[in-house]
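A.,

Following up on our hallway conversation. Structure tokens first:
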């Protein structure tokens, strides 16, 4: 080996090095220099305005909606009553003066250590028309509250739609900025990548913080559907206090339309909104070969994704597969090894994750050629591969993850240790506009943006610089 190297003329060696560098795509990504003010991240106090209980005896509180079927022709409305069960009925219709339809839901409470929840109601409104504004009300017999939502447009290949992308929100003053900035940006549904309330940061996982969180976000999620992904802060697994059922508070409070997509568990499912097919996975449920999640995803990607009908294929997970931050480094690795090949073969457009409390966007890369004998194990540019976005920067109590590895790996296009949220605007089957909005000292500022080109309809276009 050494002898042969010495025989190579110097010029040829230089050329070889240049070629290798070019092939590897040596241009480095951007590590943003923006530094946020170093004020502490504190939860909003229990008497904060955003946590106020609505006035009136047994008034419905914590109102939220999510899709009740796979496309939004049904909507599931959830709320909590504190003093007594009250009515399970939701009245709805096309104007506030004409809520002439009604549906009846169910209610239940749950116990967590020495906490007992209020009466948690879920009611699915079915047979809705797509792209139509509905008014709805609940709380009959005591205090009636009225809200409205617009159902998503009927899925199709060229249906514009704007999603908000939020993760790891919590209930700090920063969380409130993130939500306010998202509201100002005006999306029509939120893809939430997990870690909602951070109630488990409190002694005994104080479930009152699940209630405060739901009152805090009601101002958005009562009016537009949020799609939920389970994060580690949803586990609430605490055998030391006798709580051994993972995801108990989360699943009691936040239903998902999992049956509509052939899933057997609420933690993984899919929806079709406008031109997007959105697949939600659980980082904290079994995904090894033959497990229910593995079997479901296999069928989902092979049989149920149709890029001619819904061109944009987006996957939500909590723990990122590509993350160059010291925090939670490589926690998503075993799931990546299990599923990355499938996502590349399916030409997924975008993978959204949270968990790491900073922002990072990858180039289109994959690391799927390794097998146990060939020794190849490096992420390489791959135009069939998804773009990975870590959006775990909602602003929760644990603070910012500001420990990026150096040098920045080639797969990382842009990274910044700030709070914020992103938006994804699908324009048509070929183009979507993605933007990340940093919380900049109280204001929102676009700090990263990219035009995505669809992996099915424009597969050879490299859009990930
Ligand atoms: C949260 O944000 C809303 C909307 O910007 C504002 O009205 C409210 O006062 C804020 N609450 C706190 C506790 O910061
Ligand atoms: C639950 O137990 C904790 C610790 O013993 C106590 O501080 C709290 O007041 C109790 N809560 C209820 C609702 O009993
Ligand atoms: C920062 O990340 C590195 C790994 O990249 C780790 O070894 C180190 O302990 C981390 N530092 C802190 C303060 O978390
Ligand atoms: C799709 O949207 C992009 C961005 O707005 C636009 O440039 C392109 O012309 C559109 N394609 C079609 C077929 O309308
Ligand atoms: Fe997390």
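Then the amino acids I'd put at each of the 465 positions:
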């Amino acid at each position: 080996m050494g002898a042969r190297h010495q025989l190579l003329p110097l010029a040829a060696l230089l050329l070889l090095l240049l070629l290798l560098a070019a092939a590897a795509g040596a241009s480095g990504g951007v590590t943003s220099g923006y530094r946020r003010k170093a004020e502490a991240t504190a939860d909003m106090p229990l008497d904060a305005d955003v946590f106020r209980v609505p006035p009136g005896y047994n008034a419905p509180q914590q109102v939220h909606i999510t899709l009740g079927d796979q496309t939004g022709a049904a909507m599931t409305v959830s709320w909590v009553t504190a003093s007594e069960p009250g009515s399970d009925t939701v009245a709805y219709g096309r104007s506030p003066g004409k809520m002439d339809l009604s549906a009846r839901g169910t209610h239940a409470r749950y116990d967590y250590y020495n906490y007992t929840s209020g009466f948690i109601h879920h009611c699915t409104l079915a047979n809705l028309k797509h792209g139509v504004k509905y008014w709805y009300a609940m709380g009959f017999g005591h205090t009636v509250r009225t809200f409205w939502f617009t159902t998503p447009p009927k899925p199709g290949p060229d249906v514009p739609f704007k999603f908000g992308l939020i993760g790891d929100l919590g209930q700090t003053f920063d969380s409130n900025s993130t939500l306010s900035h998202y509201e100002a940006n005006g999306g029509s549904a939120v893809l939430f990548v997990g870690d909602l309330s951070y109630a488990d940061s409190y002694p005994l996982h104080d479930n009152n913080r699940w209630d405060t969180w739901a009152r805090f976000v009601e101002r958005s999620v009562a009016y537009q559907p949020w799609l939920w992904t389970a994060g580690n802060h949803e586990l609430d697994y605490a055998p030391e206090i006798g709580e051994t059922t993972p995801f108990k508070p989360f699943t009691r409070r936040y239903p998902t339309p999992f049956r509509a997509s052939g899933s057997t568990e609420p933690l993984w499912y899919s929806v079709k909104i406008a031109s997007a097919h959105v697949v939600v996975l659980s980082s904290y449920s079994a995904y090894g070969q033959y497990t229910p999640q593995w079997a479901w995803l296999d069928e989902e990607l092979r049989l149920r994704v149709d890029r001619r009908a819904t061109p944009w294929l987006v996957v939500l997970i909590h723990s990122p597969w590509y993350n160059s931050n010291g925090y939670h480094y490589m926690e998503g690795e075993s799931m990546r090894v299990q599923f990355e090949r499938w996502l590349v073969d399916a030409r997924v457009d975008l993978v959204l994750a949270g968990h790491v409390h900073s922002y990072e966007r990858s180039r289109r890369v994959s690391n799927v050629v390794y097998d146990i004998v060939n020794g190849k194990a490096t992420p390489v540019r791959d135009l069939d591969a998804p773009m990975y976005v870590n959006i775990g920067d909602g602003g929760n109590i644990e603070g910012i993850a500001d420990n990026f590895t150096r040098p920045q790996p080639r797969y990382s296009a842009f990274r910044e240790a700030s709070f914020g949220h992103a938006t994804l605007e699908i324009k048509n089957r070929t183009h979507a506009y993605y933007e990340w909005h940093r919380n900049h000292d109280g204001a929102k500022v676009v700090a990263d943006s990219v035009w995505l080109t669809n992996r099915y309809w424009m597969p050879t276009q490299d859009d990930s610089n």
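The radius of gyration is 23 Å. Curious whether your intuition agrees with the design.

B.
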